[in-house]
Design a protein that fits this description.
306 residues; Rossmann fold; two-stranded antiparallel sheet
């Protein structure tokens, strides 16, 4: 089975590469990985170049394409809407159009930010989207462009939330750094969602390919948290893992206390019930997943605690 993976240098892309199965349904997996700059066994692909995205699919004619690459700078997207839409909306559409011609299937990663957070209860996959900012709008447009080009049975949209892992740029690694540098940190406590580790998300992605799943799915780790809850757990579990010797005190603040260019949903918890049934997978609670990621970071570090 030939699989193209975009965004291979990102945090999810790296997790997908680490966990790639040797075979699916008895067929050896040939993984073709793209990154923005190429090198180290990858193909250079600029996701802002729709024609390059089409050409990649036409050249390799994959059975599946996992589109894990994205423009994820939520605040910066407000000042770069054209680039955000080129990467998050036009690229999926171009790849889907090419896959429609070559007979391939698409796994399109998306986000909880396609919702506005106003309903105050977990969002089901079948609910209408209503993004608040450019980033969410660009990801929603990517879902729509892929769906308009591919037959439903050849497209899976997998939305997720608050993704983090042991590599890349994410909230966990930022907090570990700041907690070691400062005595006190203020973290927003009135935005609720669920942290999702790249390890669990990658497992869900590969299960989609193994089962040939289509439709719109939601995947996150289990439970719910605010960013403040997440930060407090990072301090507690990071210290237990030996990554922090004296972490900063975490103080709850409001969204109004920490204004950002992009408006964020106040409640973006995803209802993953149908996904668990469809894929036959159960997610770890986010604290358990966080403990595992911190353990991985600790085991890979030879230096003393920060």
């Amino acid at each position: 089975m030939k699989v193209i993976l975009t965004g291979g240098a990102g945090q999810l892309g790296q997790a997908l590469r680490r966990s790639a199965p040797a075979a699916i349904a008895g067929t050896a997996v040939q993984l073709i990985t793209t990154t923005r700059s190429g090198g180290e066994g990858t193909i250079a692909l600029d996701l802002a170049d729709a024609e390059a995205c089409r050409a990649l699919v036409q050249q390799h004619q994959p059975d599946w394409l996992i589109n894990a690459g994205a423009y994820t700078a939520v605040d910066k997207a407000e000042s770069e809407p054209e680039l955000a839409h080129a990467v998050n909306a036009q690229a999926p559409g171009a790849m889907a159009e090419a896959l429609a011609a070559t007979g391939g299937r698409l796994l399109q990663l998306s986000t909880d930010f396609v919702f506005n957070g106003a309903q105050g209860s977990p969002y089901r996959p079948d609910q209408p989207v209503h993004p608040l900012g450019v980033y969410g709008a660009s990801k929603a447009a990517g879902e729509a462009s892929a769906a308009s080009a591919l037959a439903p049975e050849r497209l899976c949209i997998l939305r997720t939330s608050w993704v983090y892992g042991p590599v890349g740029k994410n909230f966990l690694l930022t907090m570990l750094r700041l907690m070691a540098q400062r005595e006190q940190l203020g973290v927003v406590a009135d935005q609720v969602g669920c942290p999702t580790s790249t390890a669990g998300l990658a497992g869900a992605c590969w299960t989609v390919l193994e089962q040939g799943t289509s439709g719109t799915l939601h995947w996150s780790d289990a439970g719910a948290a605010s960013w403040y809850d997440f930060a407090v757990a990072i301090a507690e579990l990071g210290q237990a893992a030996g990554l922090l010797s004296n972490p900063a005190r975490i103080q709850p603040i409001t969204t109004a206390d920490y204004p950002t260019p992009a408006q964020r949903p106040s409640y973006s918890l995803l209802d993953c019930t149908a996904t668990h049934e469809t894929l036959g997978l159960e997610a770890l609670h986010w604290r358990q997943a966080l403990q595992q990621v911190l353990g991985h970071i600790a085991s890979s570090q030879a230096s003393p605690p920060l």
